Amino acid sequence: MEEIAFYGSVVIGMIFMSTGWSNFKKLEEHTGIIMAYKILPSRMASVFAKVDVWFQLLVSVLLLLGLFRQAALGIVTVLLLLYATAISVNMWRGRREISCGCGGVMGDHHLSWSLVVRNVLLAFVSGWLITVPVSLGCLDAVLAGAEWSEVLSIQVLQLHLVALLTLMTCTTAMKLYEVWRRMDEMNKGMLEMVRRG
């Protein structure tokens, strides 16, 4: 169970690192997306966008190092539920054309209920991970008195690589699906033109 929990924490850490770095590089665009949600006043939306990016980067580093792991997972859970709520509010308002602002390996998509489900599922996983104690690959264990050799092993490297490969596979699958969807839309458009003309 510890290996699965460690793997899950690393995957979530990598997701948030990718998203945080992407949003940091495009901070103005990210701020614009947060403003487009029209939930917070402009000034608060601008502050939230910056704080959001820094929290994404902070929790990713903490999760990848295994430092203050439970607190980092708690923050991740809250952030994911906030994102799901913001998307839901705009979906109920009929505002689906907005970019989700996810970035990184999660990609940028128009708002949809599937994004709400994805964020809620990730929040559930993150919340569950809080309950599973992990010492494998965690600096928390070293700070608690464990030997480095007990915490770091070839298994830690293997699990990091498996997590990276998992994200790369998911990202590739999402990109291929997007290409297929666009080609399908083009084909339908061309068939419609042929029928009319």
Keywords:
about 200 residues
Chain-wise SSE layout:
Layout: H1 2-25, H2 27-36, H3 42-65, H4 69-92, H5 113-130, H6 139-143, H7 148-151, H8 154-196
Helix pairs in contact: 1-3, 1-5, 1-8, 2-3, 3-4, 4-5
Pfam family, one: MauE
Membrane topology: Multi-pass membrane protein
InterPro entries: Methylamine_util_MauE (IPR009908)
What does this structure look like?
By secondary structure, this protein is mainly alpha-helical. It has one domain (2-196). The protein is 77% helix and 0% strand. The protein contains 8 helices and no strands.
At a glance:
By secondary structure, the chain is mainly α. It is 77% helix and 0% strand.
The Cα radius of gyration reads 19 Å
Shape: globular
| Continuous helix count | 8
Query: How many angstroms does the end-to-end distance come to?
Result: 62 Å
Oligomer: single chain
Specify the biggest β-sheet. none
Helix proportion range = over 70%
| Total E-strand runs | 0
Model regions low in confidence, pLDDT < 50 over at least 5 residues:
none
- The total tally of domains equals 1
**What structural class results from the helix and strand content?**
mainly alpha
Transmembrane segments: 6-24, 45-65, 71-89, 120-144, 156-177
Main location: membrane
Subcellular location: Membrane
Protein name: MauE/DoxX family redox-associated membrane protein
